[in-house]
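Retro notes
What went well: the complex prediction finally ran end to end.
Inputs used:
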Amino acid sequence: GENVEQHPSTLSVQEGDSAVIKCTYSDSASNYFPWYKQELGKRPQLIIDIRSNVGEKKDQRIAVTLNKTAKHFSLHITETQPEDSAVYFCAASKTGTYKYIFGTGTRLKVLA
Amino acid sequence: DTEVTQTPKHLVMGMTNKKSLKCEQHMGHRAMYWYKQKAKKPPELMFVYSYEKLSINESVPSRFSPECPNSSLLNLHLHALQPEDSALYLCASSLGLANDEQFFGPGTRLTVL
């Protein structure tokens, strides 16, 4: 069935360093890829997304890249700050469906 | 109003109780969702309403009963739940077309005793 693999499951970085989280999807028809940040006890918040007609999207310190051929997409956070500490979920979706296929999540810890 | 709201924030219920979770949005979104989230896991889709009609039921047990009274409101009626149903229940909404951005509410933390 449809599947999204997400790595790593945990990631610790020093404040100011960069963090990269990678996801691989199985359904080649997937064409929408959102990223959510979920702080402890809070709602998942959409932080960035990308559609399959572009290869990269950037918003300040956050960027997402998409490689359709390899079926993987990545979240890049530069100049990490303690408030970036959270669980990050990737997801994949396709035209005609309301369903997201979520990755298993990455717990990011930014050490001050 | 640019948020999805949910009530109550916390709910403790016995296995014989009947309770309801409520979700509201005033962003003009026409698709609304119920998710269940266990600790350290991604959200798990339960139901989708599109233009007030049930579009997706992910084989959810009948002890969970969704209702969409109008385009702004979504309820989840609970009856005869089991302790394993304890979880964070998240509501989300999106513009209306499939494959749109989904925006989540803060969730209801449910404990079944």
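What we learned: Chain B has no helices and eleven strands.
What to try next: split runs per interface for comparison.
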